[in-house]
Specification:
alpha+beta, elongated, 92 residues
């Protein structure tokens, strides 16, 4: 049978199509379309972020908690740990 799949097409062979089939985007031979899509999303996100201004909300007092990394915390409200209320407006 000339199936083009090598010997035993119904059997699982981990490296049948080479190591690139297992990488799934984490190596240099990953899908070109996926890398282009990720790059395109980064460009779109940078354009959107430049179109807006982000400022901390004037209604909340923010402090920074020193865990493994610094995390914003709204003072006086224990349910708002790791939160940073922002005011979003158009950039001038």
């Amino acid at each position: 049978m000339g199936s083009g799949m090598g010997s035993g097409p119904r059997n699982f062979v981990r490296f049948r199509f080479g190591l690139w089939a297992i990488c799934r985007g984490s190596c240099s031979r990953s899908c070109l379309g996926m890398r282009f899509a990720v790059y395109e999303m980064k460009v779109i996100l940078s354009v959107l972020l430049n179109a807006f201004e982000f400022r901390p909300s004037p209604d909340c007092k923010i402090s920074w908690l020193d865990h493994t990394i610094l995390a914003p915390h709204v003072e006086g409200d224990p349910s708002l740990v790791n939160r940073l209320p922002l005011v979003v407006s158009e950039a001038h």
